[in-house]
Amino acid sequence: MNPLADSAGDSDTDTDSDTAQGGRLRLGVLDIGSNSAHLRIADLSPGEAPAPVRSVKSAVRLAESTDRHGVIGRPAVGRLIGAVREASAAASAAGVGELLPLATSALRDAANRDDVTAEVRAATGVTLGFLSGEQEARLTFLAVRRWYGWSAGPLLLADIGGGSLELAYGAGDGPEIALSLPLGAGRLTRHHLQGRPPVRKRTRKALRAHVRSVLKEATTEIVERPAPVRAVATSKTFTQLARLCGAPKAKAGPYAPRRLERADLHGWIPTLAKLPDEERARLRGVKASRAHQILAGAIVAEAVMDVLGLDGLDVCPWALREGLFLERLDALAAGRPAGPSFGSCEAIVP
Q1: Where are the beta strands (DSSP E) in the chain?
Q2: Phi-psi region of 230 (alpha: psi -120 to 50; beta: other; left: phi over 0)
Q3: Which of 157, 206, 209, 307 gives 20 to 30 Å between its CA and that of 40?
Q4: What phi and psi values does residue 73 have, to the nearest 5 degrees?
Q5: Short-list 189, 183, 185, 149, CA closest to 167
Q6: Segment 95-145, tens digit of pLDDT
């Protein structure tokens, strides 16, 4: 295993170099998801692991502010503009040479996406870009491969976001199969679990049947491949579910092994269904901001393991942002221009 330094740390210590000097680049990745806008800044130098510099996180709550027609409401647009302003100022103060602002499915799939991005650009000067779900899966797979190394053999990746579920499989640096499915924890909560807890058993069974149906249809090619040597999960949802089921705390550091067992998760689902959000938030590992969607996340995680024949998933601390750092580092080391993920908004909209 040859991972980066602890990318989960939120150090505010800046280093001396500003931008690319002698092949060195200070890169900022602003990842705008369903719940938060998270800026990570790292120094990239060929032949070295990316060195974390600073982390800034702001709540935007885009998913919960999206109506049934897919329109993001005005309060959320205001929060997004504020978050982008804060991230842009932090990047400038840290001497970032390149800032990559990317939005994932909550904004990418919104009916008023173009209006929102235009308003953000007018208010902040920042043009938001978009990765397709398949690109997200490929970049996250790259991060997982680099974390575990070649000794991990063929890898299977699962990543539950707010709007989508990414799956990837492969034996190389990049995946042979990369999928993005509309099975995000936030999306399913809005569409299938709208009532207040307790959630009735038949409602849970209906959601589970829906998730399994989508997975079975989409993952035929994965199921037909040789079983992975290592099956891996990333994302806040998987991390919190693993902690709920007994995995080490975050303060144990990134090298502490963390695993989510299907049998343990199965036992927690009826409990999560009974509890209101405020009581879920008191459970081990469950954040208040994600308590409302943790049940849907648990149902998806269990279904992934069931459909793909897995007893459990190892939880990797690296995910999409680390994949973006690594992609840019590879280009820097090879003296290549930045890849397609680093283009303009218009160039990478799927």
Answers
A1: 25-32, 36-44, 51-59, 98-103, 129-130, 155-160, 165-170, 177-181, 230-234, 259-261, 312-315
A2: beta
A3: 157
A4: -75, 165
A5: 183
A6: 999 999 999 888 999 999 999 999 999 999 999 999 999 999 999 999 999
Q: If you count DSSP H runs as helices and E runs as strands, how many of each does the chain have, helices first? A: 13, 11
Pairing of strands 51-59, 25-32: unpaired
Amino acid letter for position 136: E
Q: Are 159 and 144 in contact (CB under 8 A)?
A: no
Render the burial of 41-57: b for 16+ CB within 10 Å, e for the rest.
bbbbbeeebbbbbbbbb
Q: What is the per-residue pLDDT for 332?
A: 87
Amino acid at 268: W
Question: Could you tell me the two tokens for 49?
Answer: 């692991």
HSE-up of 341 (CA within 13 Å, CB side)?
Answer: 31
CA–CA gap between residue 334 and residue 7 (Å, rounded): 23
- Give the three-class secondary structure for 167: strand
Q: What single letter denotes the amino acid at residue 252?
A: A
pTM of the predicted model as reported, rounded to 2 decimal places? 0.88
- Which tokens is 312 given? 């459990």
Cα distance between residue 303 and residue 28, in whole Å? 35
DSSP assignment of 117-134: HHHHHHHHSPPPEE--HH
Amino acid at 143: A
Which of 13-17, 285-289, 290-294 shows the lowest per-residue confidence on average (mean pLDDT)?
Answer: 13-17
- From residue 56, give the alpha-carbon distance in Å to each of 68, 88, 97, 108, 236: 30, 10, 17, 22, 16
Assess whether pLDDT exceeds 90 at residue 199.
Answer: yes
Distance between CA atoms of residues 237 and 172, nearest Å: 26
User: What pairs with residue 52 in β-bridges?
Assistant: 42
194 vs 209: CA distance, rounded Å = 17
d(Cα 183, Cα 215) in Å, to the nearest integer?
9
Edge-to-edge order in the sheet of strand 259-261: 177-181, 165-170, 155-160, 230-234, 312-315, 259-261
pLDDT tens column, 15-37? 333 444 557 899 999 999 988 99
CB 11 within 8 A of CB 55: yes
